[in-house]
UniProtKB/TrEMBL annotation:
Source organism per UniProt: Roseomonas elaeocarpi
Cofactor: heme b
Keywords: Cell membrane, Heme biosynthesis, Iron, Membrane, Metal-binding, Oxidoreductase, Transmembrane, Transmembrane helix
This protein's name: Heme A synthase
Family: Belongs to the COX15/CtaA family. Type 2 subfamily.
Taxonomic path: Bacteria, Pseudomonadati, Pseudomonadota, Alphaproteobacteria, Acetobacterales
Keyword Disulfide bond: no
Record gene name: ctaA
Biased composition (Low complexity): 24-39, 49-58
Function: Catalyzes the conversion of heme O to heme A by two successive hydroxylations of the methyl group at C8. The first hydroxylation forms heme I, the second hydroxylation results in an unstable dihydroxymethyl group, which spontaneously dehydrates, resulting in the formyl group of heme A.
């Protein structure tokens, strides 16, 4: 994630408080550095050229405001880093989920064992037991009949890795939470959100099992599309909250950027459309609609496929009709891409250099790549690698949409007013955006 400049330049940031030299503490404040030769409350040189003397606080003295705010900044950054690491793990999980589905592995483990399931089969007897279980489900009889224990092993490992990765995410998140909490380093007001994320993460594991279980039903060879989409939606929600929270911790100031207003109005619908297109993609994957109509832009020679509304009642076409489900995904993707390109174009033309402009550019690039990947995936009949890549790059588009929305957040209070000069004059390329004083989530 690009590192914006606000934390270093914002009026409420540590950098701004440090003064022009970037190192001198404000008068009257004290920073205990433990500099060699220092004792008691006597000033002492830091030993590094250009670093002024610091005053050591006596033991037990209240923490001076400057030191406290530096510590708060360090805590915010450390927590943000941890959340970014967890979000990256969730992203990998989404990619692994796509690979598991496309590799036909999703139904290979028929047990829900959150703890003991982390240990893979270690004996022939255990392999045989799991294979015997798999042979009882319709997918074995209808798709993989007679593929033997070696065939079973070849589909087992991806699903096992997917589940193991989920457990690791849980460990990294819960472990980090306990660590930061115990040391009193969770930024004020953030605890409820982190606890909610922990609960949602646990729920995602349960929803995953709920989805897999639907694939064991009579005559079923794949999971329920609805449950697949719910599983995907919850993953996207978790990912979005992680990323948004990390961004807010990294960039608490709201920037009053000249030229941002029309882009702000676009950023929300763009993010909404990206999510909608992704969920529509989930239905394409869920009913394997990508295996038909493998041409672009026409579908069987028509722009709008014949049989778009052939199911009754009509709403069923949205979720169960291959032609309409695929067409809707194409249509949503096209509208999304067009709106993204308008946003990116406007952003590049009107925004000054900075976070918001960079995110707009990234959003345009990610959406273009994703659209191209979608078309390639389709015309090649959804091969494993392209399908997995298409699912993974979708998360990049979502990230860029969130980043754009975040960088363009409405400034609060006094900062909401863009300085008259800045607002009146066109943004000079390379000029930094005006900074808002308000700090919030
Ligand atoms: C902004 C553009 C797009 C986004 C964000 C997007 C997103 C997604 C997502 C998230 C999935 C997979 C969901 C899952 O596996 O659970 C998906 C599946 C799919 N998408 Fe897209 N998509 C886009 C554009 C396109 C385009 C332009 C096409 C083709 C014309 C396309 C064709 C497909 C196909 C065939 C699948 C099913 C792949 C499979 O079975 O694994 N997508 N899309």
């Amino acid at each position: 994630m690009p590192d914006g400049t606000s934390a270093k330049q914002g009026p409420s940031s540590a950098g701004a408080r440090q003064g022009p030299g970037g190192a001198a503490p404000p008068q009257g404040s004290a920073t205990a550095t433990g500099a060699p030769g220092a004792s008691g409350t006597q000033g002492a040189g830091s030993g590094r050229p250009g670093h002024p003397a610091v005053v050591l606080a006596p033991p037990g003295a209240p923490v001076p405001p400057r030191a406290a705010s530096d510590q708060a900044t360090r805590d915010r950054r450390a927590v943000a880093l941890w959340l970014i690491a967890v979000a990256a793990m969730v992203w990998i999980m989404v990619a692994l989920g796509g690979a598991t589905r496309l590799g036909g592995s999703g139904l290979s483990i028929m047990e829900w064992a959150p703890l003991s399931g982390a240990i893979p089969p270690v004996s022939d007897a255990e392999w045989q037991r799991l294979f015997d279980l798999y042979r009882t489900i319709p997918q074995y009889a209808l798709v993989n009949q007679g593929f033997g224990i070696e065939g079973f092993k070849s589909i087992f490992w991806l699903e096992w890795t997917h589940r193991l990765w989920g457990r690791l995410i849980g460990l990294v998140f819960a472990g980090g939470l306990v660590w930061f909490w115990a040391r009193g380093r969770v930024p004020a007001g953030l605890k409820p959100r982190l606890v909610l994320l922990l609960i949602l993460g646990g729920l995602q594991g349960a929803v995953g099992w709920f989805m897999v279980a639907s694939g064991f039903e009579a005559d079923s060879t794949a999971v329920s599309p609805w449950r697949l989409v719910i599983h995907l939606a919850l993953a996207l929600l978790l990912y979005s909250v992680l990323v948004w929270t990390a961004m807010t911790l990294r960039h608490p100031e709201r920037e009053a950027t000249p030229g941002a207003r029309p882009l702000r109005a676009l950023a929300h619908p763009v993010a909404g459309l990206v999510v909608l297109t992704m969920l529509a993609g989930g239905f394409v994957a869920g009913i394997k609609a990508g295996l038909d109509y493998n041409t672009f832009p026409l579908m069987d020679g028509h722009l709008v496929p014949e049989g778009y509304f052939f199911l009754e009642p009509a709403w069923r076409n949205l979720f169960e009709n291959v032609a309409s489900v695929q067409f809707n995904h194409r249509l949503l993707a096209t509208v999304t891409l067009l709106l993204v390109l308008v946003t990116a174009g406007l952003g590049l033309a009107r925004l000054p250099a900075g976070r918001a402009r960079r995110w707009c550019a990234l959003l345009g690039l990610a959406a273009l790549a994703q659209y191209g990947l979608g078309v390639s995936t389709l015309i090649h009949g959804v091969p494993f690698a392209l399908g997995t890549l298409h699912q993974s790059v979708a998360v990049a588009v979502l990230t860029a949409a969130l980043g754009t929305m975040h960088a363009l957040r409405r400034p609060r209070g006094a900062a909401a007013t863009v300085p008259a000069v800045a607002a009146a004059s066109p943004a000079a390329p390379g000029a930094p955006p005006a900074r808002a004083a308000a700090v919030g989530r």
